[in-house]
Amino acid sequence: MTQYFATVAKGLEVIAAQELERLGAENVRPEFTGVHFTGSRKLLYRVNLWGRTLFRVLVPIAEFSCANAQQLYQEVQNINWTEYLSPLNTFAVNCTGKNEVLNHTHFTALQVKNAIIDQQRSEFGERSDINLNNPDLWINLHLHENHGILSLDSSGSSLHRRGYRPAVGLAPLKESLASALLEIAEWHPDLPFLDPLCGSGTLPIEASLKALNIAPGLFRETFGFMKWKDFDPKLWESLKHEALEAQLTTLPAPILGSDQDGDILNQAFENAQRCGVADQIRLQQLELSQIEPPADQGVIICNPPYGERLGEVEELAGLYKQLGDTFKQRFKGWTAYILTGNKTLGKQVGLRTSRRIAVYNGSLPCTLLKYELY
């Protein structure tokens, strides 16, 4: 059993912890922007393959005190890097957190890099190259006060980058947040789902991947652990095969997305095609005033624009009011959710909320407003 740490968006720790437990993780313990858990190498691969709400899965290899650069350098030198890296491999160092002295992540990362390279030079007379985009080994240092945790990043690039989405709208919702919103809304595949402002399609696509039991990691070419010295290709292939066998072929209930912008809707269709769900979900170019419910009950989630400047906020008030009117007049029996980063606009919906849930869209504090449409 190995200790792991999954990094997640602020506010989604409990949702991510529940997901990890469903995937078979043990000793699951959420903390700020992450979840500790334990499991086997098989679980590490499975979590990377199936994780819908996570960013990265880190494998801690050392914990130490580090109040300053010298102490950090020495602690990194104490690790036997030949276990993880040869001078023929490339690596990159990513730092999060800071303390009073080590308060610049670039400078901190440089200390880690120098300690590793100096160890290689003294041992082999040669050193690894740095590759910031696609290294053989991703190394993560997290500082909290005078405490450091050094980890290997098993994911490589963030898991929210599923690999199916080259086409991104103006204000894209991260796939991991879209997936978490579906969980918060307690949507399950037997219920119809609608996003009336779907943009490049993230919410309906994530809903369809969940409903068809498609592992989001199947669209990615690589993960960090695939270049590790202990990578087990047989185990990985068996997990991928298992995931392909577990896929369903038809949606239990309709999943719809609509948008008035035809160009953006083309992006949504392209993204849906890339992950093989284009013939399953219904994507339509519609104004809000044209939307009709596909069933007498279901779940709506939408992420309307929040408006950065005052003029935009005034213009958007009408959109929020129209959302409220459309829900009230046409969607009796449904449950609707609006994600907004603007309290003033939220009030324009004109319906009574049954719940207000704090979430973050990137670094922006938002509220997920829930409406029971009796």
Core attributes:
374 residues, alpha/beta, seven-stranded mixed β-sheet, 10 helices, elongated
By helix and strand content, what is the structural category?
alpha/beta
Please compute the radius of gyration using only Cα atoms.
Answer: 23 Å
Give the overall pLDDT as a whole number. 94
What strand line-up does the widest sheet have?
2-3-1-4-7-6-5
Low-confidence runs of at least 5 consecutive residues: none
What coarse outline follows from CA principal-axis ratios? elongated
Topology as a string of helices (H) and strands (E): EHEEHEHEHEEHEHHEHEEHEHEE
What percent of residues are in strands? 15-25%
Largest sheet: 7 strands, mixed
How many β-strand runs? 14
In whole angstroms, the N-to-C terminal distance is: 49 Å
Helix content: 25-40%
Query: How many separate helices?
Result: 10
